[in-house]
Write a structure and sequence with these properties.
The structure is a single chain. By secondary structure, the chain is an alpha/beta fold. The protein folds into two domains: about 170 residues, Rossmann fold; about 70 residues, no CATH class. The chain is built from nine helices and ten strands. It is globular, with a radius of gyration of 18 Å. The chain starts with 8 loop residues before the first strand and ends with a helix.
């Protein structure tokens, strides 16, 4: 593993703002995620997490500021930036009539993977996401946990070095959440990850660092212990203190 001094920023939010008329979904959000970090992205519903993630991935354009993935401006150089990026949106779209095998084959070809390289990458993501038992079942018939794994496998298919994952454990049961956490820890050995979550236990279980926003603004960027200190060593209390401006 490289030292902090040697690691370069792989995800950069540089003054990101998004306005819808007079409403600011995000306002002057600044943070970066270094190579090899797994950063938890926190905030209450409506705080601007998904909007910020969509700007970082180039899915929507910022009103102000710049988003960069592996140094590439995601408005001016989105194609090259996307080669480094795997994105799993909240409730990511799936082709329900397809099987995981068919969908992975489709996305592999769409990404230009052919022959042995395509076969090797499909086999790799099936193993990482533990999909072998459902590869030939219609996605519509799979549990929510397996659907999440299928979505994750698609995001990993081109072997990106950056992952942006929006609520990957939303709606899963405890056993399914345990499986996703295991996958995240494995992926964090080789990739840079920004992970949006509402589950504070996930922060302690997986994250190197926490970035928190509220009402579209950055309110915390630091380690888990520093976050605890905002709530007298209680993460729930710290979350409340930082996201309730009238408290």
């Amino acid at each position: 593993m490289t030292t902090t001094e040697q690691r370069r920023p792989m995800i950069e939010a540089d003054g990101l703002s998004k306005f819808y008329g007079p409403f600011a979904a995000a306002r002057e959000v600044n943070f970066s995620v270094l190579q090899g970090e797994l950063v938890a992205f926190l905030g209450p519903n409506g705080a601007g997490k998904s909007t910020t993630m969509k700007m970082l991935t180039g899915y929507i354009a910022p009103s102000e500021g710049e988003a960069r993935i592996a140094g590439h401006n995601m408005m001016d150089d989105r194609i090259e930036g996307s080669r480094h990026l795997g994105y799993l949106p909240e409730s990511g779209p799936l082709y329900m009539e397809m099987t995981p095998s068919g969908m992975l084959d489709f996305f592999a070809e769409a990404r230009g993977l052919v022959g042995a390289k395509k076969r090797d990458r499909v086999e790799a993501v099936v193993e990482i996401c533990d999909l072998s038992s459902v590869m030939y079942k219609p996605i519509s018939k799979l549990s929510k946990g397996f659907k999440q794994r299928v979505g994750m496998s698609q995001a990993l298919l081109h072997d990106p070095d950056v992952l942006i994952l929006d609520e990957p454990t939303a709606g899963l049961d405890p056993n399914q959440i345990r499986g996703v956490r295991k996958t995240m820890r494995k992926l964090a050995e080789t990739k840079t990850i920004l992970l949006s979550t509402h589950i504070l236990q996930e922060v302690e279980a997986m994250a190197n660092r926490v970035v928190m926003i509220n009402e579209g603004r950055l309110v915390y960027d630091g380690d888990v212990q520093g976050l605890r200190e905002h709530g007298n060593d209680d993460l729930d209390q710290a979350f409340h203190q930082l996201t309730q401006f009238d408290a």
